[in-house]
């Protein structure tokens, strides 16, 4: 399967297994929402692909700029 995309918005399973899941689009939408709402990606300083991948897999997204209700949805 070939494809293209921005790693910041791509769900981890897409680049690790090359197969989307039922939640792939929701993951990308959540990242996009966070950026549009706060003006920044919900990822700590991304130094490399490895750091980005690790943060995504461990669920270490920074949602602190969203209010509590939004964090519950995201």
Unreliable residue stretches: none
Instruction: Report Rg.
Output: 12 Å
Number of strands: 0
Order of helices and strands: HHHH
- Principal-axis shape equals globular
Give the helix tally: 4
Produce the secondary structure layout.
Blueprint: H1 12-16, H2 24-38, H3 49-57, H4 68-73
Describe this entry's structure for a reader.
The chain has 74 residues and is mostly helical. It has four helices and no strands. It has helices at 12-16, 24-38, 49-57, 68-73. The longest helix is centred in the middle third of the chain and has 15 residues, at 24-38. The radius of gyration is 12 Å and the shape is globular. The mean pLDDT is 82.
Main attributes?
4 helices; 74 residues; mainly alpha
In short:
The chain is mostly helical. The protein has four helices and no strands.
């Amino acid at each position: 399967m070939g494809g293209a995309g921005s790693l910041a918005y791509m769900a981890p399973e897409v680049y690790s297994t090359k197969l989307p899941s039922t939640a792939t689009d929701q993951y990308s939408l959540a990242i996009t929402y966070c950026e549009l709402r706060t003006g920044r990606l919900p990822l700590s300083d991304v130094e490399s692909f490895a750091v980005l991948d690790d943060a995504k897999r461990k669920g270490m997204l920074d949602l602190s700029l969203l209010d509590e209700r939004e964090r519950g949805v995201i």
